[in-house]
Design brief:
InterPro entries: ATPase_NBD, FGGY_C, FGGY_Carb_Kinase, FGGY_N. It comes from Bifidobacterium pullorum subsp. gallinarum. The chain is an alpha/beta fold and 544 residues long. The chain has a domain of 122 residues. It is built from 19 helices and 23 strands.
Length: 544
């Protein structure tokens, strides 16, 4: 339902804005949900829609089908457009600006005819370890396993049949934008998860491209890397217009008209920065969903190569350090779902908000042990580079005499979920002495007041701020990037401070000393117990 649905004067005012095109639409393809958010020129959400989906294994690799991409996009858009008509009596024929964002990285490769050469390979895949090691060594710059260039180079190393036919490769956001506008472009933040970006030129690192092309196995290909990559664009740059074919692809009813200007398509890291006002140097955010990443905008380059830290950019092209963990809420959601089934079996079903809220609050109740009472939980549904795991096996473990209680169990769930991302964050703050003035949490897990915020403050031993927009997430952040097209004469950080977040409400949770000590104890046991995961990978086949 629309957020703003109060008195008739307010509804009439919003309806007039919709007719005048004083709106921006952001659509983000998350790992489990595609969400569409329409905002007005005061950054209020006036309509939304979403569509649930999930990746699946295809020949041992995580993927989504092209059919799922378009079905989900159309469903999320249709629900949002229906929300507009129901709340304001307007058919959505025009939108001021549109922007698409998506989970970063992965591999979507196309031939000269624009046909997909292999099924979409998502960021979850860790089959690219050889490429990661060789390219990181070649560039002396961390190239994570999930980056698009690692996927392409691994295909070269594996002599995959399709490699010689590649004419273009991009991310999910870049693919959707291309199909709707005809333009092969990418927001610089999303681009920085394909191949390294030079923060001075805000485009591809030319020297790295030269080095890549000179690798013997690459030089043998009929293409040059620079010819395969999309064009990076900084925030505020018009990135094309919705074509007639694109309008019909987005809205098959034909109601939405072509000609709408689109913002550069971004990645979920960039939209997370936007949603948390974290694009200024020494600011940071923690974006928590199916995966989790902690990002800090850097004052300069890191002193050394650290495989645990990705170097990406803000939507404006400034360098940022990121600790990215592939796994966060999938295992947690599975356990919460189990408790929901138990409630149903008792004849007392509860809604999701009550279920999550009740279980989460148990994790910080007075009777819990600060270190989870000796319980351990490993959230690894898929492989996790930070933990050295090629595959994932979710596991719960405990000593026979550990204190098993609901509070300790849920605390172990949340501690375990935040532990992988702490590995890379510790490298930045403890090894590289990166300074952080503010760290903002966002994502659905922060919807329950205080709980995840308090635990994250313990994990990073730093104050954590949560804004009123925390649950809006990346789709709202992408809509704001769409609005920025009208204000691109302003610095992006100033635009956010002075316009978007000028009156934003927030709550800050400072670290509790006992919680910090408890987390450090849990984290030490978490890392010491990682051989359990390796044993599970060896003993339990991924696919029967």
């Amino acid at each position: 339902m629309a957020v703003m649905q109060n008195d008739s004067d307010q509804v009439a005012a919003i309806a007039e804005k919709i007719r005048a095109g004083k709106t921006s639409l952001g659509i983000e393809f998350g790992s489990t949900r595609i969400k569409a958010v329409l905002i007005d020129d005061t950054y209020r959400t006036i309509a939304s829609g979403d569509y649930g989906w999930a990746s699946h294994l295809e020949h041992g690799l995580w993927s989504y089908t092209v059919e799922e991409i378009w079905k989900g996009l159309q469903a999320a858009y249709a629900e949002m457009a229906g929300d507009v008509e129901a709340a304001y009596g307007e058919k959505l024929t025009h939108i001021g600006h549109i922007g698409f964002s998506a989970m970063m990285h992965g591999y979507l490769a196309f031939d000269e005819a624009g046909e997909l050469l292999v099924p979409f390979r998502t960021w979850q895949n860790t089959n690219t370890h050889e490429a990661h090691e060789k390219l990181s060594e070649l560039f002396q710059y961390n190239i994570p396993e999930r980056w698009s260039i690692a996927h392409l180079y691994q295909c070269v190393l594996d002599n995959e049949e399709h490699v010689s036919k590649v004419a273009f490769f991009t991310t999910l956001a870049g693919y959707v934008h291309w199909k709707l506008t005809g333009r092969k472009v990418l927001g610089v933040g999303d681009a920085s998860g394909m191949f390294p970006i030079d923060p001075t030129t805000r485009t591809w690192e030319a020297e790295f491209i030269r080095q890549f092309n000179e690798l013997p196995e690459v030089a043998a290909q009929p293409w040059k890397l620079e010819d395969l990559l999309p064009e990076p664009l900084v925030a505020g740059t018009p990135a094309g217009e919705l074509t007639e074919e694109g309008a019909k692809l987005l809205d098959p009813t034909g109601t939405l008209q072509p000609g709408i200007t689109l913002a550069p398509p971004e990645g979920d890291a960039g939209t997370g920065m936007m949603a948390t006002n974290s694009v200024r140097k020494r600011t940071g955010n923690v974006s928590a969903g199916t995966s989790i990443f902690a990002t800090v905008v850097l004052e300069g380059k890191l002193k050394a190569l650290h495989p645990e830290v990705d170097l990406v950019t803000t939507p404006a092209g400034d360098l940022a350090g990121m600790s990215h963990a592939n796994n966060f809420t999938s295992d947690l959601n599975a356990w919460v779902g189990l408790f929901g089934q138990f409630a149903e079996a008792l004849g007392h079903p509860v809604d999701a908000g009550t279920l999550y809220g009740t279980l989460f609050r148990a994790a910080i109740a007075d009777d819990v042990d600060a270190n989870c009472g000796g319980l351990l939980n490993y959230p690894f549904r898929s492989g996790e580079f930070l933990a050295g795991l090629p595959e994932g096996r979710p596991l719960f473990a405990r000593k026979p005499e550990a204190r098993m209680s609901l509070g300790n169990f849920m605390r172990a769930q949340l501690f375990g979920a935040f532990s992988p991302v702490k590995i890379g964050m510790d490298v930045m703050t403890k090894d590289e002495h990166v300074q952080v003035d503010s760290l903002v949490g966002h994502g659905g897990i922060f919807t329950t007041p205080k709980v995840a915020q308090k635990i994250l403050a313990a994990a990073f031993d730093t104050p954590i701020k949560v804004m009123a927009t925390a649950a809006e997430g990346g789709a709202w952040g992408m809509a704001v990037l769409g609005d920025y097209l009208w204000h691109a004469d302003e610095d992006l950080a100033d635009y956010l401070d002075n316009r978007v977040f000028a009156d934003a409400e927030s709550v800050t949770e400072t670290p509790d000393e006992k919680d910090v000590e408890g987390f450090e104890d849990f984290f030490a046991r978490f890392r010491a117990g990682l051989p359990i995961e390796h044993a599970a990978i060896a003993a339990i086949p991924l696919e029967d």
